[in-house]
């Protein structure tokens, strides 16, 4: 891919994703002071060139940016041709080549250095305080500050390694516990080497262990997405996904985890050209479609890991492909969990009812739903009718339902018209004082013709791969950060990009080159996803994580798992 094309693609992408306002490059000539420029901590690699990724703030100018980074305005134009054509724009992202960065730094970002007095004795460094985030564990926090788990436990009087969200931890300096290999008497996993591993002497760091076996200071990620902003819905979705990935990288950099990301625009299907550049990546996310994922796997079978980011139907690709990871939960797993849930809820006297559409064209989804019910061992009564028969269905339901117990109804259909009719009839039965609990696939939540009130009336139970709890403090924090950075609202694709990037960067940072060995042990619940990967018998990994939600009769939607 040509650098020029990619830069233009990224610039256009953020124009769609961020909805930013234009600020001309001549703004520096105006009479007010420009906004101070802080050197970005974010770096990207474009066709082998490492660049700073700088977000343009209001009142920043080309002159102030070039001065802060120690480059010329021509250098900025060279890597950002869109800036020369359209001017500098608020909230846009421009690339600053690192190879041209001089030693000169802006005075505002230079830390003040204080020479210690010769007569002064070395004092104990003041302790820092760390607030535990929802995704952190004690091993990761200790590694972040360069101390042992034992020292951290000792400084906080901890008796075990379990931490609570928002728990306050004091961080001791390494000098406070020089003798403390591990306070609990165990051996740090950092000191353990794999006898089967092969490495030269350069692989050792100061602690004399193989870093490739465990933690990584920098994660190499490749992102393959159709990023050309042509105005189509799918491309806007991809831009949102990309924005979520960038925010995750930004957040994790503040936590001491660095990510070297290479971005490839595969809008034209140029999979083979991108494949030759990503073989050394720790993780590859994308492309999107099943066809492109297959093409990438065939073009570069030596890639360590390929993540399918958006298509739940790509689950078939895990068969015979050990490096393939299916991130969206396959529909079949959701169907099975829904039936399992219904079975768990069953009480003595309850009845189960499976409803299907008579005469409908058989689909793979409907067959999978029915198969899930049959394989569960649940005893159920079956009802099949056509929409034309819908007005007379209540008589059949009266015959099949229990009067003094719960009637747990499972709809095996993805037809909006039919599901709407079933929900209407179930509400009629509720008015007749029947206790009805509805179980349905997640697609029902997208049906616009069904009154939401009827979902609550029937106590709708849904097992889904995606669900965002907007009361979750982490979701609220993400919303604020996303709005501040991109000046727009995140879609579910932005949440997906954030969750995927955070999960895999965390895993790779913690376990290094052996991270795939830990994939089926590392469950994580994030903003809209629960990742619980399981290795298939003859291939790669698929996500079995689901979220269970209930539409309560008090007009609330509650996540119960």
């Amino acid at each position: 891919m040509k650098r020029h094309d990619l830069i233009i693609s990224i610039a256009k992408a953020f124009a769609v994703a961020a909805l930013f306002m234009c600020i001309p490059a001549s703004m520096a000539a105006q009479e007010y002071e420009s906004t101070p420029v802080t050197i970005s901590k974010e770096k990207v690699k474009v066709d082998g060139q490492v660049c700073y990724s700088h977000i343009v703030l209001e009142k920043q100018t080309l002159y102030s940016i070039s001065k802060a980074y120690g480059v010329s305005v021509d250098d900025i134009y060279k890597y950002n041709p869109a800036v020369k054509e359209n001017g500098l724009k608020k909230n846009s992202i421009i690339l600053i080549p690192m190879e041209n960065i001089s030693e000169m730094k802006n005075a505002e970002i230079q830390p003040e250095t204080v020479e210690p007095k010769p007569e002064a004795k070395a004092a104990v460094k003041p302790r820092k305080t760390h607030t535990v985030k929802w995704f952190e564990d004690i091993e990761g926090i200790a590694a972040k500050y360069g101390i042992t788990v034992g020292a951290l436990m000792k400084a906080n009087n901890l008796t075990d390694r379990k931490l609570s969200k928002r728990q306050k931890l004091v961080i001791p300096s390494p000098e406070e516990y020089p003798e403390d290999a591990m306070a609990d008497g165990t051996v740090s996993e950092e000191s353990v080497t794999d006898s089967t591993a092969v490495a030269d002497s350069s692989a050792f760091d100061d602690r004399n262990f193989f870093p490739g076996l465990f933690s990584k200071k920098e994660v190499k990620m490749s992102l393959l997405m159709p990023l050309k902003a042509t105005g189509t819905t799918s491309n806007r979705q991809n831009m949102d996904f990309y924005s979520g990935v960038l925010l995750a990288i930004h957040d994790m950099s503040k936590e001491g985890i660095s990510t070297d990301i290479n971005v490839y625009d595969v809008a034209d299907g140029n999979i083979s050209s991108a494949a030759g550049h990503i073989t050394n990546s720790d993780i590859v996310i994308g492309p999107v479609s099943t066809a492109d994922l297959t093409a990438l796997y065939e073009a570069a079978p030596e890639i360590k890991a390929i993540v399918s980011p958006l298509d739940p139907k790509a689950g078939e690709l895990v068969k015979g492909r050990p490096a393939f990871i299916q991130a969206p939960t396959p529909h079949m797993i959701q169907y099975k969990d829904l039936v399992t849930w219904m079975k768990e809820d069953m009480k003595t006297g309850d009845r189960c009812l499976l409803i299907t559409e008579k005469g409908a064209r058989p689909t793979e989804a409907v067959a999978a739903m029915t198969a899930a019910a049959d394989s569960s061992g649940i005893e159920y009564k079956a009802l099949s009718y056509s929409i034309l028969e819908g007005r007379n269905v209540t008589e059949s339901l009266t015959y099949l339902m229990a009067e003094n117990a719960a009637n747990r109804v499972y709809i095996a259909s993805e037809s909006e018209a039919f599901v709407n009719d079933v929900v209407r009839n179930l509400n009629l039965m509720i008015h007749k004082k029947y206790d009805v609990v509805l179980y349905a696939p997640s697609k029902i939540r997208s049906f616009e013709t069904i009154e939401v009130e009827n979902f609550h009336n029937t106590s709708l139970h849904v097992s889904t791969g995606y669900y965002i709890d907007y009361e979750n403090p982490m979701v609220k924090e993400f919303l604020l950060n996303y709005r501040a950075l991109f000046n727009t609202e995140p879609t579910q694709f932005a949440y997906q990009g954030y969750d995927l990037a955070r999960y895999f960067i965390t895993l790779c940072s913690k376990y290094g080159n052996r991270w795939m060995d830990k994939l089926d042990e590392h469950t994580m619940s994030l903003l809209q996803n629960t990742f619980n990967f399981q290795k298939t018998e003859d291939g790669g990994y698929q996500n079995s994580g689901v979220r269970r939600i209930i539409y309560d009769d008090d007009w609330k939607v509650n996540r119960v798992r």
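The chain has a mean pLDDT of 78. The longest strand covers residues 218-225.
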